Each structure stands twice: as structure tokens, then as C-alpha cells.
TrEMBL record:
One of its GO terms (cellular component) is mitochondrial matrix. Keywords: Metal-binding, Oxidoreductase. This is superoxide dismutase. InterPro entries: Fe/Mn_Superoxide_Dismutase (IPR050265), Mn/Fe_SOD (IPR001189), Mn/Fe_SOD_BS (IPR019833), Mn/Fe_SOD_C (IPR019832), Mn/Fe_SOD_N_sf (IPR036324), SOD_C_sf (IPR036314). Mn(2+) binds at H46, D140, H144. Residues 71-173 form the Manganese/iron superoxide dismutase C-terminal domain. The gene is SOD2. Its EC number is 1.15.1.1. Belongs to the iron/manganese superoxide dismutase family. It comes from Gorilla gorilla gorilla (Western lowland gorilla).
């Protein structure tokens, strides 16, 4: 049942899983276990060199893919409106940390001005309804979003959340609201 459930969730979680570094798995047997049919030297070479190269190349390719997703018009808008991606990240993180109690940190689009803006909303207050901004990226800072793993250390959660943001979705939202 677990294997079946894992297979069903794999496509849905594929994007999230691709954000994590892959590592070379250990073989479930010794390199010499297939002797005399395949010797230990061949197994060691294939596993520790060839298979390791495939895993490393996969990681490099995924990193380049993620960088490419964040590039283009959205990245240019981030640079224009915040100075750099790092400054944007710092500002959104600070706004999210600063939410008193529960709420959300947001990257929104101001359609009237044609610019990106950062906002924070307490509780369930909707971004568009309270600020007029079109939501592009929301960071949930209600404790239920992070407490079991990060306890009450919201800044650690916010540092980690950047590793799982779906930039393809944020870019699609940005492109749609510019029309």
C-alpha cells in the first residue's frame, strides 16, 4: 500500500522533490555479490563513477532549470522594483517575520502602477481585498505551517521556504496579471 501511495503522489510532488539534491544511493549488496558473473571492480566502477556522474549531472541540470525559471520578465521586474533578487528575498522575509501572530507574507502585483509590491496580512485577511494587490506568491506564517518542524523559530522556516517556491507558478501568475 505504501509503495502504491508513493507512486500516486510522485507526479504531484515531482516539482517539490526536484528541489532537493539527489544523492547516490548505496547498493543493497556488496560490489562482489555478483561474482563470478560480474566482478567487483566493474560494479565499483559503474556505481561509484558512472552512476555518481549521472546523479551529479542531474543535480546540476535541476539547478540550472530552477535558475532559468526565475529569469525572464519576473526576474527583471524583481530587479526593477527591489534592486536585486537578494534584496527582494530579504524584504519579503522581513515582512513575513514581522507578522504579529498569524497571517501571510505576500508578493503582489499593483496593476495600477505596473509594479511588484510586498505586503503582509494578518490572520485570514485577503491580499487583494485589503490592499488591491494581485497575489503572486504567498508565504503562510500561521504557526500550523511550520510549528511541528521549526517550533517557534519562524525565521528558520522562512529561510527554508525559499527552497520550495514554485517559481514557474509565480511567473505564470505574473504574466497573467500583466495582460
Amino acid at each position: 500500500m505504501l509503495a502504491s501511495t508513493s507512486r500516486q503522489l510522485a507526479p504531484a510532488l515531482g516539482y517539490l522533490g526536484s528541489r532537493q539534491k539527489h544523492s547516490l544511493p548505496d547498493l543493497p549488496y556488496d560490489y562482489g555479490a555478483l561474482e563470478p558473473h560480474i566482478n567487483a571492480q566493474i560494479m565499483q566502477l559503474h556505481h561509484s563513477k558512472h552512476h555518481a556522474a549521472y546523479v551529479n549531472n542531474l543535480n546540476v541540470t535541476e539547478e540550472k532549470y530552477q535558475e532559468a525559471l526565475a529569469k525572464g520578465e519576473l526576474l527583471e521586474a524583481i530587479k526593477r522594483d527591489f534592486g536585486s533578487f537578494d534584496k527582494f528575498k530579504e524584504k519579503l522575509t522581513a515582512a513575513s517575520v514581522g507578522v504579529q501572530g498569524s497571517g501571510w507574507g505576500w508578493l503582489g502585483f499593483n496593476k495600477e502602477r505596473g509594479h511588484l509590491q510586498i505586503a503582509a496580512c494578518p490572520n485570514q485577511d485577503p491580499l487583494q481585498g485589503t490592499t488591491g494587490l494581485i497575489p503572486l506568491l504567498g508565504i503562510d506564517v500561521w504557526e500550523h505551517a511550520y510549528y511541528l518542524q521549526y517550533k517557534n523559530v519562524r525565521p528558520d522556516y522562512l529561510k527554508a521556504i525559499w527552497n520550495v517556491i514554485n517559481w514557474e507558478n509565480v511567473t505564470e501568475r505574473y504574466m497573467a496579471c500583466k495582460k
